[in-house]
Every structure is written in C-alpha cells, then in structure tokens.
Write a sequence for this structure.
C-alpha cells in the first residue's frame, strides 16, 4: 500500500510541474519581466540588475548610472569620468566587480605606457574594494632625471633614453617626489596591491585591474521569489518585475502552484487514510 501512496504523490507532483510549465509558456508574461532577462556582450559575465546594456536591455532593467556598453572585442565596458574600464567579472553576491582600464588593450603587451587618464570615481555608486593603491604614471621626463629612477622606467620598444616613462607606486614617496619635479605629466591609476607589486611589473598590474563594490537596491528577495529586478523612472524606486506584474520587493507565491500542491496533498492524505483505516478483527477488536 505504501508503494501505491508514493506513486499517487509522484503523479500529482509531475502534474503540478507540467501545468506550471505549460501555463508559463502559453500565457504572455509581463513585458518588463521578459525584457530584463540577463544578457552579455559575447564575452565576459552575464549582465543584469543593477547593470544593463543599452540596445540589448531596457533602461528600466538597471539602476541609473550603471549602464554598460559592449566593446568591439565583445567585453562589457563601464564608463567612469575620464576613462573606460573593461569588466572582467561580476559577483552579484558580494556586489563587486573586477575591472581594468580599457587603455591597457592598446599597449598590446609591448611594455609601452598606455594612454591612461586620471579617473574620478563616483562615490555615490562605486567604491574601492580590498587593497587598492595608487600607481603614478609619469611621462615626458627630462634627461636630467635621477639615475635612481631608472628601475621605475616603463620599457617601450623603439624608445631611447630620452623622454622616459616611469611607473612609481604611491608608497615610494621619495621617488614620486623626484619624478614630479622632472616629468611633465603625472597620471594616477588605481591598482590592486597583492603584496607583490614593484618596479618592472607595471603592465601586468594594470592588466590585473582592481575590484570595485557598488551601492544599489538589494535584488536578492526579488530573485529568490522568481522575479527580475528593475527600476521605475517614474517613482524613482526599485521594482520587482514578476510574470504577472510589478511588485515593490518580491513576487507573491504563485496561486496556481499553491492550489495544485494543496490538491496533491489532499489526494495523498485520502490515499493514506484508505490504506490505514481501522479493520475489525475476529476478536471484535480494531487494529490499524
């Protein structure tokens, strides 16, 4: 009898799953819910709230100021004041992303100093995460530059001794002060300090990039409930887009699925009752 009970329960569960899948495919879902499906640029991580890709996703799929563009190489790119940064990876759990300056791609591993510019971080949205230090990139340095700075020189094929390019980390204050007096241009680039940075690995450090964290509405309750996160430009508030419509935080439990589970539980309970009902014995007593 127990095997029959188990078979009855399994049949009910399979019926529930079939009906839910069939109904979701045959009924039209709420448009913003369909529009905010995760996308990517071909390479790199999948993109969803708080980020969005204009042209591939609607603006309401992301948070203001979190738009990403696709590079010609197929990577997502974050535009910050002054520079573009290639997005290597995104952790939606820790709300962080690893980026590196897109100008590094132009150096092609030649060792030449890339055309990096000073970047201003929009602190209302992003902040540095982990151990981040500053790398000073000096260029057009004079011939009278101290020989002590030779070890900081950024090698570049085809360049002679004239017009040195230097890469000096912020913690080397003495070399930074000397270079500031002998070089015409000083650009500051944020880099990750893993404890192994030093002269001679500037190109490698720039390509490794650094980690940013972001500040935006928490998307977890919406995603856990089966929704997709978005933003309302009208109310300027977070919205949870569900198959049947928008909600403020998360999707309500599906009525169809809840009703089917209730029916299955009732059917299973009736089957158990019939199999375990009291039967009179020859002695006049009852047993289960």
């Amino acid at each position: 009898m127990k095997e029959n009970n188990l078979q009855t329960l399994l049949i009910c569960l399979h019926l529930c799953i079939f009906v839910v899948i069939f109904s979701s495919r045959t009924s039209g879902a709420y448009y913003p819910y369909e529009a905010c499906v995760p996308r990517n640029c071909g390479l790199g991580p999948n993109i969803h709230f708080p980020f969005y890709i204009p042209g591939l996703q609607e603006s309401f799929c992301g948070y203001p100021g979190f738009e990403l563009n696709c590079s010609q190489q197929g990577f997502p790119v974050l535009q910050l004041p002054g520079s573009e940064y290639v997005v290597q990876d995104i952790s939606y759990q820790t709300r962080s992303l690893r980026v590196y300056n897109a100008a590094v791609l132009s150096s092609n591993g030649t060792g030449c100093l890339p055309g990096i510019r000073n970047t201003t971080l929009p602190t209302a949205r992003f902040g540095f995460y982990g151990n981040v230090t500053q790398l000073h990139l000096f260029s057009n340095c004079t011939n009278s530059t101290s020989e002590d700075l030779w070890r900081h020189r950024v090698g570049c094929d085809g360049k002679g001794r004239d017009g040195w390019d230097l890469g000096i980390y912020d913690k080397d204050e003495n070399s930074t002060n000397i270079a500031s007096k002998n070089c015409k241009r000083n650009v500051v680039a944020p880099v990750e300090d893993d404890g192994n940075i030093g002269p001679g690995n500037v190109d490698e450090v720039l390509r490794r990039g650094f980690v940013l964290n972001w500040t935006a509405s928490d998307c977890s309750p919406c995603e856990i409930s089966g929704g997709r996160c978005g933003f309302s430009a009208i109310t300027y508030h977070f919205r949870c887009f569900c198959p049947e419509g928008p909600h403020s935080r998360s999707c309500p439990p599906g009525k169809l699925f809840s009703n089917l589970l209730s029916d299955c539980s009732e059917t299973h309970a009736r089957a158990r009752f019939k199999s375990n009902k009291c039967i009179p014995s020859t002695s006049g007593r009852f047993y289960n």
